[in-house]
Design a protein that fits this description.
This protein is mostly beta strands. It is built from 2 helices and 58 strands.
Length: 885
């Protein structure tokens, strides 16, 4: 390799092998203060800038024409800019060079010159470059940038690094024969910024069953700007075109994105339809890492619906803010407001509210103390029903403190009984404003409570946990029907939780409640067959109490058999029996002895009618007599089977889970027994096959006139012991696998590869995630469920039965095309329930999806074609239509 070094402005060229070049000192290239690829100098013109020449074969100097020719892996370099090629001609008088390819390209032996600088590199048939101006001209260029690839018949490089491309194309597809590209007769490429084309046509090359089809011109545009920056940058948004049966053809995403700084940006956008519909929207975002972030969105839309001929106007506001002041204080804010006639389209910013029927707003501020042991929270919650404008708002402040052990100090160590006594305080206030059907309701509520607990470890592994709570609640509300009402309640629940002999769990509870209200009612006959209601403003009260307990244990039985293992692979069977017994009691607080109920004489029915004196008070829960015994029998059958894939060599299967429960109220004078409830589930056949069932049976008969159960046993009427009321059976399973598609290893990438492909198969379409290709196996998956539901409350009428079969299937036709089916079928009616078919094609660089609902009320289709590159993912074509109007 022969090398020559020239120093601009130094007045000499040093060539160790050719002393005659000393005569050319100071005359090769005059000094230039600004040349592409090197730093400009603000000093004098004699500042140094070095240019290096090198060639593997030879260098020839022409003293007459002032030129130099380099052969064989020749290169010229200057301050980050280099030209390499088989032959380079340097012209000293013009400060330029010329490089061209050598060899026969058709025979595969052509060597093309390469230009490289800080912005990237490209190949071309010829390169002309001027070191003084930093401009250059190339022919038949091919280049790769971080943002994509481009080629052109003629490319002019400006001194600022911009490229002017004639008759070229740009693509983000990393293939010699790309699937998608943009063709233009005039392109301007600003590296790391944007591509400007006049005009521009997007071409796609479809592939059908592994056969490439001719390119299709898809989107012709007279002018187009394509961003080439991977980071946030200001610029115009890429318009989206589409059409719908209700609005015709429309253009969306018309607007501008302003990257104000690294911490905030602003997006202004709008839509316009040929039928007169339009939309304006903005989104302002801000973020400071580890401190706060948020966004403010606003939208106004005027929609002209061609389907019904009605104009709609909608508006939408949303404010989000999250602020972490320090590790102990956090603010979370999300306020949402909507108005108008609610006719949202797919182009709306507020995608969620296209299908939701209400808006929801919330805000909360929380602060923790003592390393999280204490917490104070202030919150707001608001909802609005968009169908009828019903609204509710709630403001709440609460304080909670974890367990405090006040006597675990000094002499009271961990072994002292006083160290096991704990306190848990809490308090909260709340205000509710509700507007339902034009009626306003305002409620203020305050709660405070203190929980005492004592935990004792007894001999033999027994434990005992005693709790005593003191809770106070006060309520003040105002509504149109009653005006202001006040009430308060004192609750004193006492609880016992214990574990006896390590296997018996016994819990008990005693409840005492004392309620106060500022008024009661008195009912009487008004003399004309009606009821006269009189209100009392005197403070009144009522008290209730009750006792309850429950006990539960578990009994185990295990079967191990070598013969069973040899025949079925089951190492052991285990049956777990879980009986639970419960009891609850409270007296009859509705009796006359307590004075909470009163009576009046109804002359029309000629009988006394009992009523609750606290019926219109804020507390009116006065229970009747209860002495209820409940029993639940649970059963769990499990099997331990061989499994070579598990580390232990075995796994547990749930063969059957079955439970039955019922209760009897001994204090009731009628209908003492509650219905019998049965439930069962199993996945014994396969982990992917689940069977569940449930049923409700009644011990009593049914009156078809009153449509209620009556106090007569079903067996007394000559029927069976139990009357079927309702039940269900649900079966679901899923299977998946692969179709073989070519030779080679059955799983060349291993099991993890198959799992990744299967997961991506059901990911959201157009999410920008590349599915990849597998020429060996094509995934498929099938999910089916059968749901049977029967209701037979009235035994004198035929049972009402629903039978719904749901099917979801997806499979790959090729490594590009996937087909999906999702539908339900009503076995009773013989009709499909919202059938949906979709076709999805992944062409590595672009994708296409078609969703089709062929029948039913929502007959429609939706076609979408888009690019997968992160730079161009907003460039999509959409077409939505409906059938049958």
């Amino acid at each position: 390799m022969r090398r020559c070094v020239m120093v601009k402005g130094a007045g000499s060229v040093f060539c160790p092998f050719l002393l005659i070049m000393l005569t050319l000192s100071g005359s090769l290239f005059p000094a230039q203060p600004q040349a592409y690829g090197r730093e400009s100098s603000s000093g004098d013109a004699a500042s140094s800038s070095t240019i290096s020449f090198a060639a593997r074969d030879s260098l020839r100097y022409d003293l007459v024409d002032q030129t130099m020719t380099l052969w064989g892996s020749a290169s010229v370099e200057q301050a980050g800019t280099s030209i390499q090629g088989p032959e380079i001609l340097v012209d000293y008088e013009t400060s330029s060079l010329y490089a061209e390819k050598a060899g026969d390209e058709s025979a595969g032996g052509a060597e093309r010159p390469v230009f490289t600088d800080d912005d990237g590199a490209f190949e071309a048939d010829t390169i002309t470059y001027n070191f003084d101006t930093g401009r250059g001209v190339t022919s038949n260029i091919a280049s790769e940038m971080e943002e994509g690839y481009y080629e052109g018949e003629e490319v002019t490089r400006l001194e600022n690094g911009e490229l002017l491309v004639k008759n070229g194309y740009f693509t983000t597809c990393p293939k010699e024969d790309p699937d998608i590209w943009f063709s233009s007769s005039n392109m301007r490429i600003i590296p790391n910024d944007r591509l400007i084309a006049r005009p521009l046509i997007m071409y796609v090359r479809p592939v059908l069953f592994s056969q490439e089809l001719p390119p299709i011109p898809l989107i012709p545009l007279p002018y187009m700007v394509i961003p080439l920056r991977t980071d946030r940058a200001s610029g115009f948004l890429i318009p989206k075109g589409g059409s719908s049966s209700s609005r015709g053809f429309y253009l969306s995403n018309l607007g501008y994105f302003w990257a104000i700084s690294d911490y905030m940006d602003l997006r202004l956008e709008g839509d316009i339809s040929f039928n007169g519909s339009w939309r304006l929207a903005e989104r302002y975002r801000y973020k400071k890492r580890y401190l706060y972030e948020g966004a403010f969105e606003a939208e106004y839309e005027h929609s002209v619906n061609d389907s019904d001929g009605v104009d709609y106007d909608n508006w939408y506001l949303n404010l989000e803010h999250q602020h972490r002041f320090d590790p102990t204080a956090f603010l979370d804010l999300n306020l949402e407001y909507l108005g108008g006639e609610r006719d949202y389209d797919i182009s709306s910013i507020d995608y969620d509210n296209i299908v939701n029927e209400q808006t929801s707003s919330y805000a909360s501020f929380s602060k923790t103390f003592d390393e999280g042991n204490r917490r104070a929270t202030v919150s707001y919650q608001g909802t609005q029903d968009l169908r009828n404008d019903d609204a509710s708002q709630t403001v709440k402040a609460s304080y909670y403190q974890g367990r405090v052990y006040p006597f675990m100090t000094g002499d009271a160590g961990e072994g002292d009984w006083r160290s096991r006594l704990s306190l848990t305080p809490r308090a909260s206030v709340r205000a509710d404003w509700v507007d339902i059907g034009g009626e306003d309701l305002t409620t203020y509520r305050a709660n405070t409570g203190l929980r005492f607990a004592y935990l004792a470890d007894l001999d033999g592994g027994n434990t005992l946990n005693l709790t005593q709570e003191v809770n106070l609640e006060g309520i003040l509300d105002e509504r149109d029907a009653y005006g202001y009402r006040r009430a308060g309640r004192l609750s004193l629940p006492f609880g016992i939780e214990s574990t006896l002999w390590k296997h018996l769990y016994v819990n008990g509870r005693v409840d005492f409640n004392s309620s106060y209200a500022d008024g009661t009612i008195r009912l009487s006959d008004d003399g004309s067959g009606g009821v006269l209601t009189e209100y009392s403003d005197d403070m009144s009260s009522f008290s209730t109490y009750g006792v309850s307990f429950e006990a539960e244990t578990r009994l185990y039985g295990t079967l191990r058999s070598a013969l069973l293992h040899d025949l079925t692979g089951i190492r052991a069977l285990r049956h777990t029996f879980i009986p639970e017994l419960s009891f609850s009691w409270n007296p009859d607080f509705t009796s006359d002895s307590y004075g909470y109920y009163d009576r009046y004489f109804d002359p029309v029915e000629s009988e006394y009618v009992r009523y609750n004196r606290f019926r219109d008070a804020l507390y009116d829960d006065i229970p009747g007599p209860s002495s209820t015994v409940g029993i639940t029998l649970g059963n769990l059958l499990q099997a331990k089977v061989d499994d070579e894939s598990a580390l232990s060599g075995e796994r547990i299967l749930q063969l059957l889970s079955f439970s039955a429960s019922a209760s009897c109220n001994l204090a009731a004078d009628s209908l003492q027994w509650s219905p019998l409830v049965l439930s069962a589930s199993s996945s014994a056949l396969s982990p992917d096959f689940l069977l569940s069932a449930g049923a409700v049976y009644d011990f009593y008969s049914y009156d078809p006139v009153t449509e209620e159960r009556i106090d007569r046993l079903y067996a007394d009427e000559g029927n069976g012991l139990l009357r079927f009321v309702r039940g269900f059976v649900n079966m679901s399973f899923q299977v998946d696998g692969y179709f073989r598609s070519g030779g080679g290893d059955e799983n060349p990438a291993g099991d993890d590869r198959g799992a990744q492909e299967q997961g991506s198969l059901y990911s959201e379409r157009f999410s920008g995630q590349h599915r990849g290709s597998d020429v060996y196996r094509l995934p498929w998956k099938l999910r089916m469920s059968l749901y049977l539901n029967s209701r037979h409350e009235n035994p004198f009428e035929p049972a009402e039965t629903d039978a719904l079969l749901n099917t979801s299937a997806r499979f790959s036709l090729t490594d590009i095309w996937q087909v999906g089916v999702n539908t339900g079928f009503d076995l009773q009616e013989g009709d499909f329930v919202f059938p949906q078919l979709d076709l999805y094609g992944d062409f590595n660089c672009w994708e296409v999806g078609l969703e089709w609902v062929p029948s039913g009320e929502y007959q429609s289709y939706f076609l979408q074609i888009g690019l997968k590159s992160s730079l161009l993912q907003d460039l999509r074509f959409r077409k939505r239509g409906q059938f049958g109007g």
